[in-house]
Amino acid sequence: MTLLAISGIALLIFISGARIERMDIGHVGVVRSGGPFEGRSIRQVLRPGSGPTWTGWFSQKPHEYPAHKVVLQYTVTAEPQRGDRPGVDVVTVPTLDGVRVGLQGAVYYHFVGEQNESLLRRFDETFGTRKYTSETGKSVYPADGDYGFQVMVENVFRPVLDNDLRRVVVTFECAQIVSACKLVKPASGDTTAHGVSRNVDLIERRINQSLQGDLTGALGGAYFTDVHFRLTRVTLPPAVQNAVTAAQAESAKVQVARQKYQQGRYEARRLELLAKAYNKSPSLANVEAIKSAPRSSTVILNTGGKSQPLLVGAK
Fold first, then answer.
1. CB-based contacts of 21: which residues, under 8 Å, 6+ apart?
2. Are 81 and 126 contained in the same domain?
3. Strand partners, 101
4. Residue by residue, what is the 3-state secondary structure of 59-98?
5. Each residue's pLDDT tens digit in the chain (315 positions)?
6. Does any domain span residue 307?
7. Is the four-CA dihedral 112, 117, 120, 122 of positive or negative sign?
8. Is residue 228 part of a domain?
9. Which of 88, 95, 160, 222 pairs as cysteine with 75 (C-beta 3.0–4.6 A)?
10. Are residues 197 and 107 part of one domain?
11. Single pTM value for the model
């Protein structure tokens, strides 16, 4: 009986300790040892799309990270209400003339994943072992699903991205990257729409030239590859935008006044020419008088010293 009980316990331990894992096509898994007499070293890496795989006795649940082929996105916005979600960063940086502008766009990148197992293992041993805090105050590991990975990215991306954006944008005046800014802030250089578009493209190119290298240097490894920044919009702070709106409204009033003035000049000139035409041709003046007379009225025409009554619009 005792032998049977021992056999039953051994069987239960055997069943509960057996680990077979599989990985979906969009993730790579890092498996760590987890037995009672083992350390917590990395045992193996499960590649994306792998079928049922034996991972040893009492191994831990795989740490899942995005596969290398998956295109990831980190959103940059100037709207504070959108900044409370993982993977969305509110970015405002100063210009050369001191205006704090907001930037909107996105960073597209790939995680190292299965492309380099040595780097992946190093990432799991360094960044993968600590928790990161989201904007809501929740602390998570990078392997805690897509949410946890995005929170980690926000924590490690933001300082590097902010620094690069600040370093590049501060070389431009506000009106050189937002044409409307010239209504309230004088600027030098090309502030035309074409010039602004060219400067925004230049900012984008400069960021792309430095961002990946800066990330690699700051993090100690090329954990993120094919990093590409896309700037879609530069916005003004509310106070400046309100001043621009007011300036545009005043400009519109001035334009309307100018148009009315020009219209008045044209009208005066028209009447002057018309008067000359009537003086040269009394008959033409009579025709105009008849056309402008009310219906059912009698117009008396004086032609050659003779007065002739004419009933207008008798119907």
1. 29, 31, 46, 52, 53, 55, 59, 61, 62
2. yes
3. 93
4. CCCCEEEECCCCCEEEEEECCHHHCCCCCEEECEEECCCC
5. 565 545 444 444 444 556 688 889 999 999 988 666 555 678 889 999 888 887 777 678 899 999 999 999 988 876 665 444 555 556 888 999 888 888 988 999 999 999 999 999 999 999 999 999 987 888 999 999 989 999 999 888 888 998 999 999 999 998 899 888 887 777 777 778 888 999 999 999 999 999 999 999 999 999 999 999 999 888 887 666 565 555 555 554 545 456 655 665 666 676 666 667 666 666 656 656 656 656 655 555 555 555 555 444 444
6. no
7. negative
8. yes
9. 88
10. yes
11. 0.69
Range of the domain at 273: 238-288
Closest CA to 183 of 236, 234, 237, 245: 245
Q: Number of structural domains, the chain?
A: 3
Q: How far is CA 45 from the centre of its chain?
A: 36
CATH of the domain at 180: 3.30.479.30
CA atoms of 188 and 208, how far apart (whole Å) = 26
Rounded CA-CA distance 160/88 in Å is 15
Q: Is residue 299 part of a domain?
A: no
Query: Do 120 and 208 reside in the same domain of the chain?
Result: yes
Q: Are 125 and 207 part of one and the same domain?
A: yes
